[in-house]
Amino acid sequence: MKKIVITRKINPTMIQKLEKDFRVVLWDEAEKPMPRDRFLEETADAHGVLTMLSDKVDEEMLSNARNLKVVANLAVGYDNIDLESAKQHNVIITNTPDVLTETTAELAFTLMLTAARRVLEANRQLMAGEWSGWSPYHMAGTDIFGKTVGIFGMGSIGAAFARRLSGFRTKVLYHNRSQSELGETLGAEYVSFEDLLSASDFVLCAAPLTDETKHRFDKEAFQRMKDSAFFINIGRGAHVVEADLARAVETGQIRGAALDVFENEPIGKDHPFVNMDNMTLLPHIGSASVDTRNNMMNLCVNNIMEVLNGGNPITPVK
Ligand code: DGY
What we know:
Elements: E1 3-6, H1 12-19, E2 23-26, H2 36-43, E3 48-51, H3 59-64, E4 70-73, H4 83-88, E5 92-94, H5 101-116, H6 119-127, E6 148-152, H7 156-165, E7 171-175, H8 181-185, E8 189-190, H9 193-199, E9 202-205, H10 219-224, E10 230-233, H11 242-250, E11 256-259, E12 279-281, H12 290-308
Helix pairs in contact: 1-12, 5-7
Keywords: Oxidoreductase
InterPro entries: D-isomer_2-hydroxyacid_DH, D-isomer_2_OHA_DH_cat_dom, D-isomer_DH_CS, D-isomer_DH_CS1, D-isomer_DH_NAD-bd, NAD(P)-bd_dom_sf
Pfam families: 2-Hacid_dh, 2-Hacid_dh_C
């Protein structure tokens, strides 16, 4: 029987589906990643692996996995995977596009609203018993309607976010490597990265992490933004030079940031962002609705089954 390794606790029905035809080895912990040495040991003779974005699928792992045919990554992003090396070892990589688009766009919207209206700050004040009563500018935030929103990365999540903006009477700008039909259909205006930064009241990063986009949001980028603007990130932490962002928020160069992702996850209390009032921080829950996570798992399982049964992957990373 072919062996499949699953590196985190997933929905039991998905495991049962695989167990009909395969031997499944499961790291049965929901919160903790499979330790690296165990990952290497278990994948050494595996034919398929269902990985999380916290698992590094690199040359060391791939050259050690002599039977490996497919890695199904439970994420749309795949910056945890060395694609070049996978190609050399003839391992098919799949991801989970589309099924998480709407859920992730909803979270991006949640971040924008939460930051603009100071929701977490206001909630913290109330919970700490420090609310002294109504006053005209108490916790006064920023409107979204009538503003300019800039989307860096007009892929399907960026577009789903833009669609949600239509009820807010905003002007929408976007920047991609090239002009996108999707952007035009949504009435969004293509601008340079520099113009996106300087003209937007809210800048959303929804791009994939690549060599080109890594650390794109640095000191210079934040300097270009309005001092009233917010930066929102649902892409990857490494899109940002975190020390530059901390400085930009601390010194009032930008109004605030709302982040779902960090360069080294998980972050703890000692992270410089944690005690800053103008930071809205979430623990990488972009696609975390129960339905969407189930759909993502199902897609991973189907990708593995297709490949190991001699078919074509449903959502290969090309
Ligand atoms: C992804 O799919 O890349 C997300 O970050 C997971 O939540």
